[in-house]
Design goal:
Length: 224
């Protein structure tokens, strides 16, 4: 009997015991980084938009960056080259609403630190980013950024899509009660997988007099 018990214990002792483990939840994929080129009628334009959740904060903090520049075709007009970059650190209050600081670097206006809210949604056929903010330096400005996209599928496999975008940046001087800087962009194109081509319209306005700069042409957009 003792020998039998010893054999049974030996057999079962050689069998590894495994415990069921709950499957680990995979982190949601980060949005693609779209870069865009517009060889326009008046100047060459480039833009990149970055949206990233920060894993070290358990994705409670999000970084958003909208950066674009426009360069004149003639080097003699280099002083008119334009640059706008808005960078936002957002703490998520809910899935779609955040609050936090931002910093804009705008040609002709300089560095504009701000504090504001961030609203963001991304669905299978549309996306929206809206950032209303107010500057916290001596130059009191309201800084508003809006990017709205609509991209419904045109094929069953969703490789082909219509692509439309409306984008705006508006900076207003509250002390003087004047317009400081604004941009209004429109896009209409066709997407195949991560590539998009179409028609672009850029309208830029400068200063209290709202000096206008128009730029039209084709655009190429690649989602990296």
């Amino acid at each position: 009997m003792q020998k039998l018990l010893l054999v049974v214990l030996t057999i079962f002792g050689a069998i590894p015991i495994t415990y069921a483990q709950a499957p680990q939840q995979q982190p949601a994929p980060q949005p693609a980084i779209p870069i865009e080129f517009v060889p326009g009628s008046d100047r060459f334009y480039f833009q990149a938009i970055l949206v990233r959740d920060i894993p070290l904060t358990k994705n409670k903090v999000r970084f958003i960056s909208v950066t674009n520049y426009a360069t004149e075709y003639r080097n003699s007009n280099a002083a008119a080259n334009d640059f706008v970059s808005v960078n936002i650190v957002s703490y998520k209050l809910t899935k779609n609403i955040g609050v936090g600081p931002s910093a804009a670097n705008v040609a002709g206006l300089g560095w504009i630190p701000s504090l504001g809210f961030q609203f963001g949604w991304r669905k299978p056929s549309w996306a929206l980013i809206f950032n209303p903010a107010i500057s916290i330096n001596k130059n009191t400005n309201t800084n508003n950024v809006l990017v709205a996209e609509y991209f419904p599928a045109l094929s069953k496999n969703q490789n082909w899509r219509l692509y439309t975008r409306l984008q705006g940046i508006y900076i207003h001087d509250l002390k003087q009660g004047d317009h400081s800087r604004s941009q209004y962009f429109g896009r209409l194109g066709l997407s195949y997988k991560q590539y998009t081509v179409g028609a672009a319209a850029n309208l830029d306005y400068y200063g209290a007099a709202k000096k206008e700069k128009q730029n039209y042409g084709p655009f190429l957009r690649v989602a990296l």
